[in-house]
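I hope you will forgive my troubling you with a question about protein structure. I am sending you one protein, given as its amino acid sequence and as whole-number tokens for its backbone shapes. Thank you for your consideration; the sequence and its tokens are set out here:
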Amino acid sequence: MPRVIGIDIPDNKRLVISLTYIYGIGSKLAEDLISKLGLNRNMRAKELTPEDIAKINSMLQSQYVVEGDLRRHVQGNIKRLISINCYRGMRHRMGLPVRGQGTQKNARTRKGKKKTVANKKS
């Protein structure tokens, strides 16, 4: 398995698909990265040479925020929302859906057992 910025990418998949296993790289960014480096998008990841891997590593570290740095950035944003006591921060703190989803029917399996949101008057 080739290691790209410390992550083992699957070697039997196409290069475009393998690169999406890195946190912060989606299909569009993988396509752009491969076209900038002039690699074949249909080649398998196991066919990468050490020079190709070095090129991918240097490009990702210099121009993009991925993996650990991106995770820290996202966690910092969530901590900031929690610390300023905004609505989204309170939803994060309570473990409830943040982006306007309902809680009566869904959001139970992902967030655990039933949580009371507010007392409903009948």
About this structure: The chain has two domains: 3-67, 85-122. The chain has a mean pLDDT of 86. The CA atoms of residues 108 and 115 lie 8 Å apart. The radius of gyration is 20 Å.
